[in-house]
């Protein structure tokens, strides 16, 4: 869907400059498409992590399950706090990265619209 957001005149301009179809795709269409789809994909990644509790991105077992197992053995609830901190350590930087990427994308689009 990102490729469809690139205006057809961009392709036509590249072709009129003598670029082949492959060169047009590589140098004109894909860079613009990637800039437009990156923020929504990062939003989806953050939502996936938040909605499913997916902490396996750290390469460890699910932190909540590990905390539950540890708590059932010792009746100490500190592992839940640690699991929450791990969750925050993963989601907050990803959210900030997504917001920054989206803001930069919007600033670029606004700058192009004003020029």
What do you see in this structure?
78% of the residues lie in helices and 0% in strands. The protein has helices at 8-16, 21-52, 63-74, 78-114. Helix 1 runs antiparallel to helix 2 (21-52) and helix 2 runs antiparallel to helix 4. It has a single domain (3-114), classed as Orthogonal Bundle (MetI-like fold). It has 115 residues and is mainly α. The mean pLDDT is 83. The protein is elongated. The protein is built from four helices and no strands. The longest helix is centred in the C-terminal third of the chain and has 37 residues, at 78-114.
Query: What is the SS-derived class?
Result: mainly alpha
Helix content: over 70%
**How confident overall, as mean pLDDT?**
83
Using the 3D structure, state the CATH architecture. Answer: Orthogonal Bundle
SSE ordering: HHHH
The rough form would be described as elongated
What fold name goes in the CATH topology slot? MetI-like fold
Radius of gyration, in Å, reads 22 Å
List low-pLDDT spans.
none
Number of domains: 1
Terminal Cα span: 26 Å
Question: What's the main sheet like?
Answer: none
Indicate the CATH class. Mainly Alpha
Please report the number of helical segments. Answer: 4
Counted beta strands: 0
């Amino acid at each position: 869907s990102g490729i469809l957001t690139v205006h057809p005149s961009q392709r036509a301009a590249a072709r009129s400059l003598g670029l082949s179809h492959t060169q047009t795709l590589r140098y004109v269409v894909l860079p613009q498409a990637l800039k437009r789809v990156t923020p929504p994909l990062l939003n989806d990644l953050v939502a996936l992590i938040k909605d499913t509790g997916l902490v396996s991105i750290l390469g460890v077992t699910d932190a909540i399950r590990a905390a539950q197992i540890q708590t059932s053995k010792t009746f100490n609830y500190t592992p839940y706090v640690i699991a929450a901190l791990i969750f925050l350590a993963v989601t907050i930087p990803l959210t900030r990265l997504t917001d920054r990427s989206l803001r930069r994308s919007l600033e670029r689009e606004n700058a192009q619209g004003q020029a």
